[in-house]
């Protein structure tokens, strides 16, 4: 049985109501797709702590606080994930792809024009309804 990977992903919303997305590198799982930046929750970390660490490492964003927006458990053919999507408007820093990935601020209404991993479908729908 595969071990389910616990991931914290950030829905970061700026004062113009745009959402930060980044493009997964080709060699990564679900490579080439857009994502809400984030990564694995390590042992002894809360999802919020993991989010703060990952956003600093990946996109140069300092998150001050975040709350849980939704949790999704999803089975890819090759990987099982538990995604905690954390939402925040409380952050500082200029977004930058620190791992060489593309990052973009996009209007909520434009999110359907980007291809996300299949697990994200309900999240994009919920953000649009928000
Ligand atoms: N960060 C993020 N990951 C997502 C989203 N949707 C989704 O299915 N995932 C999946 C893809 C990956 O299997 C996993 C996130 O892992 P990760 O960002 O730590 O990246 P990774 O496993 O490729 O490798 P690494 O960082 O340990 O090198 O969650 C999303 O919106 N954001
Ligand atoms: Mg990551």
TrEMBL record:
Q: What keywords are assigned to this protein?
A: DNA damage, DNA repair, DNA replication, Hydrolase, Magnesium, Metal-binding, Mutator protein
Q: Which cofactor does it need?
A: Mg(2+)
Under NCBIfam families, the record lists: mutt
- What protein family does this chain belong to? Belongs to the Nudix hydrolase family.
| Enzyme Commission number | 3.6.1.55
Q: Which CDD domains match?
A: NUDIX_MutT_NudA_like
Which residues belong to any copy of the Nudix hydrolase domain? 3-130
Check the record and name the Gene3D superfamilies matching this protein: Nucleoside Triphosphate Pyrophosphohydrolase
Q: Give the organism the record lists.
A: Motilimonas cestriensis
In terms of domain of life, where is this protein from?
A: Bacteria
Q: Return the protein name.
A: 8-oxo-dGTP diphosphatase
A UniProt-annotated Pfam family: NUDIX_4
Q: What is the lineage of its organism?
A: Bacteria, Pseudomonadati, Pseudomonadota, Gammaproteobacteria, Alteromonadales
**Which reaction equation describes what this protein catalyses?**
8-oxo-GTP + H2O = 8-oxo-GMP + diphosphate + H(+); 8-oxo-dGTP + H2O = 8-oxo-dGMP + diphosphate + H(+)
